[in-house]
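chain below, 300 aa
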Amino acid sequence: MDKHSWVEVSFLLPGEQAESVAEILNRYAHQGVVIERDMQSNDKNQMKVFAYLLDDNTLEHNKLEIEKAIFYLGKILPVPAPTYRPIRDQDWMAAWRQFYKPVDIGHKLLIIPAWYDEKKIVDARIPIRINPGMAFGTGTHPTTQLSLELLEHYLQPEQTMIDVGCGSGILSIAGILLGATHSIAVDVSQAAVLSTHENNALNKVEDKIEVAKASVSEVKAGNFSYQKAPLVVANILLKVLEDLFDIGMGDLVNDEGILLISGILVDQMDSIEEKARANGFTRVDSIVQDDWAGLAFKKN
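prediction:
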């Protein structure tokens, strides 16, 4: 975070409501929206959706617009009122230290907080050190875990990869530590780009991950060291995934290559599969955690 003042806007709600609320917040919180499991609840489906609003002359307008959108959404499905609180960098880190613990993923990976003592790690898993920031991908959300499990299964040694909507950079970092030679990591959020750079340094993989504020169009245009890869990952909300397909995300995947997608609810699987099929992909795998799904597609 920079030296501006921020206000956190947050919701505690069931997973099936999380995406709809996140889409609303994304219109006004340009640093990104976070969906994480509520670690203080015994209900595995309870999610915290939160984002940060700049505390300037736009704050009251943005709060009003968010509450108006939530009001109309509430006519379709019940949504609790938002909670607001001022936030400072030290408050952010202190909150994360209370509940962000190591998380086992798949058969090989272990997500650990940046401050965690590696001497406490007793198994042979590959540690990925992540510093929580205002971006997706700390390892606690099911869609991140699903993406990592699929990545572990489908990544082949010595492959290159492209990470669309990289968030914290966790998928690119995992890919490198699992044997990829290089990753292009792009995100339209500057906060995500900064978070990815920081986490790359924590994991000593800076020289193998190309990071920029960009999206599919810039990769296709040749702004990076390659335009296609045998493995492409995208852990983003459904509407964004559909828009990315429309601007050519499928073109980033080599023929016979693999596209890994998460960020969607189980009842959205048919929708994204239809979109993928229309762009020349066949679903080869799917895994589910709680109400969330991760899908693997092969390019025909």
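The two ends are 42 Å apart (CA to CA). The chain has two domains: 6-95, 100-299.
thats it, cya
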